[in-house]
Amino acid sequence: MVLVQREVADRLLAAPGSRTYGIPSVITAIHATGSTAFTVPASVFYPTPSVESAVVDLERRPAPEGAERGIEMATAAFGLRRKMLRRSLEGVIAEPASVLERCGIDPTARPEQLAPEDFIAIAVEADA
């Protein structure tokens, strides 16, 4: 368990498609399962901060094969968040459009639409 600002908790536990989904969400989902145990109001701290806190319960699990390379793919994709995947992965893998198609992923998708497992699948396919 870890106590963090509520906004950080939201980012760690965000699902694909949400506004707060990004690299922290992908890394957390690859390495652990998590949930918000409870929130902590600002009034319990002194001096009182202007943010709410949350306790996040994380249970580590073994990383799947290709996890680190998958995180590298996610980092490249989210580095150019507003670009389509085929463009944001150009500098990381050869022929990104064909790799994405072989994984069953639309090359025009944006990174926030992909699940963490999708980034691992891209990594495994690109390195095959």
Q: State the CATH superfamily name of the largest domain.
A: rRNA adenine dimethylase, C-terminal domain
Report the helical percentage.
Answer: 40-55%
Residues in β-strands, percent: 15-25%
Q: What overall geometry do the principal axes of the alpha carbons give?
A: elongated
Summarize the structure.
The protein folds into 2 domains: 59 residues, no CATH class; 61 residues, rRNA adenine dimethylase, C-terminal domain (Helicase, Ruva Protein, domain 3, Orthogonal Bundle). A 3-stranded antiparallel sheet has the order 1-3-2. The chain contains 6 helices and 3 strands; from the N terminus they run E-H-H-E-E-H-H-H-H.
Question: What does this protein look like?
Answer:
This protein has 128 residues and is α+β, with helices and mostly antiparallel strands. The protein has two domains: 2-60, no CATH class; 67-127, Orthogonal Bundle (Helicase, Ruva Protein, domain 3), CATH 1.10.8. The chain is 41% helix and 16% strand. The protein contains six helices and three strands. The chain has helices spanning 6-13, 23-31, 67-79, 85-88, 96-102, 116-127; strands at residues 2-5, 32-40, 53-60. The protein has a three-stranded antiparallel beta sheet. Helix 2 packs antiparallel against helix 3 (67-79) and helix 3 (67-79) crosses helix 6 (116-127). The longest helix is centred in the middle third of the chain and has 13 residues, at 67-79. The protein is elongated, with a radius of gyration of 17 Å. The mean pLDDT is 94.
